[in-house]
Amino acid sequence: MNAPIRSGIQSMVVLLAGSLVACTAQQEQAPAVDLEAEAQAIRDVSSAWLEHVTARDLEELTGLFAESAVFFDENEPATEGLAAIRADIESEWAENPDFTVTWSTISVDVADSGDMAWERGQWEFDPDGAGEAEGTYGEYVTVYRKMGGAWKAVADIGSVTKPEEEAEEEVIE
User: Fold this and answer.
1) Residue 110's closest CA among 84, 83, 135, 144?
2) Most buried of 91, 92, 141, 158 (most Cβ within 10 A)?
3) Are 126 and 40 in contact (CB under 8 A)?
4) CA 113 remoteness from chain centre
5) Per residue in 80-123, pLDDT tens?
6) Is pLDDT of 16 > 50?
7) Could you tell me which of 109, 166, 162 has the C-alpha nearest to residue 138?
8) By the 8 A CB rule, do 139 and 159 touch?
9) Tally of CA atoms within 13 A in the half-sphere of 117 that contains its CB
10) How far from 165 is each of 74, 109, 126, 171, CA to CA, in Å?
């Protein structure tokens, strides 16, 4: 191989090696996602969600959801999009003006990328608060996406569960 070609190939190899080193250095310098801080941020959003529901503050509540969010209720078709979710919440609040609801987070898992997370928890709902109607309780999963620096709910699903005593009675009968 003649000297000019060899010199050109050597220059390209050095250039490629330098580029790889630069790219690797940039990747190493990228800040790592603080998964614990992001998990706490999800817990904070969940707490704010409950506060807004308790206060019946629809504006603040719907600000926690992505425009394309999807909510799933048992035995109901999915509610898709922020406008439909808002209408569903308004209807639920009108049907049950004295309702009480609580929930608590069981776990939060944040993707290593720091832009997706899911929360699992337990909830209790009483349609008439201190009235005579029987309340229900169950578990839920909410999926969040980080959008514009803020966590937004993109999907929410809950299921009704039975008390342990009821489940044991069914097995015994």
Assistant:
1) 144
2) 158
3) no
4) 14
5) 999 999 999 999 999 999 999 999 999 999 999 999 999 999 99
6) no
7) 162
8) yes
9) 28
10) 22, 30, 19, 10
Number of alpha helices (DSSP H) and beta strands (DSSP E) in the chain: 5, 6
pTM of the model as a whole: 0.76
What pLDDT score does 14 carry? 45
Phi, psi of 112 (to 5 degrees): -55, -30
Which residue reads 């003006």 in tokens? 97
**Regarding beta strands 150-160 and 100-110, do their DSSP bridges make them parallel or antiparallel, or are they unpaired?**
unpaired
Report the alpha-carbon distance of residue 135 to residue 100 in Å, rounded. Answer: 9
* Alpha helix positions (H), the chain: 3-29, 35-54, 58-62, 82-95, 164-172
Compute φ and ψ for 36, nearest 5 degrees: -65, -40
